[in-house]
Amino acid sequence: MRFTRFLTESQNAVQAATEIAKALPSFEVIDTKYVKETGKRITVTQTMPDAKRRPFVQAANDWLQKNKDGYEYIEIKSNRATKDIHFKSPTSDKEIYIQTKPDGKRGSTDPNELMTAVLACVPRLTAPSDLEALDAMVDSAKALVPSKIFDYAANELAAFDGDYTNFCQAISAAMAIQDFIGGTADKAYITGRVWHRDIQKFKMNAYGMKDFNSSDIVLKRGTKFYGISLKKKDRPTTADPTILNKSVGSVFEDPNLISDYNDSIRNFMINRVIAVAERAKMLERGSKRKAELDRTGKVWKNLISRLPNDYFNRQLKGRFSIFKDIAELFDKEADSIANTLMQLVLKTDIQQLKQFDFDFALVTGIGNYGPRVGPVVSKADLIGIDTIVERMAELAKNNSPKIELDRSTVQPGDRGATAAVLKLNLMMGTLKMLDITIRYKGSASWTSQPSILATMTREFKDYLKGK
Predict the structure, then answer these.
(1) Total-model pTM
(2) Among 432, 377, 374, which Cα is nearest to 403's?
């Protein structure tokens, strides 16, 4: 009998919570679930987009206070008042407590840098154990931003409420950063739009970049500044994020090679992509001639943009692929390009800023959130510039960086190629440091340049960490 009563009470609680959701049809409640029964209360959860939680709670409370069918509103006096609902139902002897949960889906704005910056300023930062602790941390971090952070955007602050996985990743990064800098940061600067006058002296021009110092955020603790290059991922086993994303043309130094590269791109587009499309009657005859006469590129770019994705990808994989030309050009300037790529990724030249009390680290925050598992904060990957310089100096005693084709894959232009991606490796002796890919990033990039992307190999990360 007791078990039967328990089932009835739990079912009635879920049904009562569902009735409230049905009474507010403008809100998307994804699911309603029983959680637990303690004393005089039954707790259920309702999952929904995070941006809708507060409006839903307000609407539900208004409905409960106006309802004449036996529902009784109970005021919540804790900081959960804007996220949870407490009431009595005519079908249940116990009070019912609805805990609203975010669905964990991201918004369009990425506030990870701002989240990490402000969390690094939180004293005694620890990982949250449950949703209540996570919500409280989000609210306190938002309140701290105006007094601690410079040069953030209002939409980034507003996005805190809608991105719990991002926030968990930021907690992971901030905890590692506090270990790196020796405690709580006094204040922080976001560098994406402007370098604040306090940190302007740390901005470096090198290797063709005005922002060679790739610090996404700069923290101050005492008299010392710390630049942090931020990345993120969901789990420790997830593939590492890309740490380099540049246009191919930006890594050449020789003006003649730059000219050859631009000619190769133009010739491929006009004499291969457009010419074949004409023969296949995908473009009107004479379009190739028009493109050849055009010096600015407007004509051939307009023609290229009309072609289907699968057709363009076939040309990129085929016998006359532009990637074959790019591979040959890389081979002509291999030593210079290898050194440039190594600097763009590892930033060893940033160590010269230590004379200005500036330190630097590469940090990957690791974490995720799900309605079922709650907040998960894993240990971040952090590699400081001193460690990078020391380990690279050891490696460079008997080796020089070199770039070479990845022999384990069939490259574009070769028989049997299945992907429109040129793959290379950056090597130091027998140690593979970087996996490099060169590709067009979708149809929107066809009329510009392919991109060069890089990720650190696991064996190289292990080497840098002394494993």
Answers:
(1) 0.80
(2) 432
Q: In sequence order, what are the residues at sequence separation of 6 or more whose Cβ sits closer than 8 angstroms to the Cβ of residue 333?
A: 252, 253, 254, 257
Give the integer Cα–Cα distance in Å for 170 and 176. 10
Q: Where are the domains of the chain?
A: 2-102, 112-241+352-383, 254-332+398-467
Q: Give CA separation, 441 vs 244, 366, 451, in Å.
A: 14, 25, 7
Give pLDDT tens digits for 234-269.
999 998 889 888 899 988 988 999 999 999 999 999
Nearest one of 79, 73, 6, 64 to 36, comparing CA atoms: 6
Q: What CATH number labels 2-102? A: 3.30.460
Is residue 73 within 8 A of residue 65, CB to CB? The reply is yes
Q: At what angle do helices 112-119 and 164-181 cross, to 10 degrees?
A: 40
| Cα 305 to Cα 274: distance, rounded to the nearest angstrom | 11
For 277-333, the pLDDT digits (tens) are: 999 999 998 898 888 888 778 888 888 888 998 999 999 999 999 999 999 999 999
Compute the distance between CA of residue 141 and CA of residue 112 in angstroms, rounded to an integer: 12
On the CB side of 213, how many CA atoms lie within 13 Å of its CA? Answer: 25
Sign of CA dihedral 147, 153, 159, 165: negative
Looking at residue 359, its amino acid is D
Burial of 280: CB neighbours in 10 Å, binned 0-12, 13-18, 19+: exposed
Task: Please give the Cα distance from 273 to 311 (Å, whole number).
Answer: 9
Residue showing tokens 């996404």 = 216
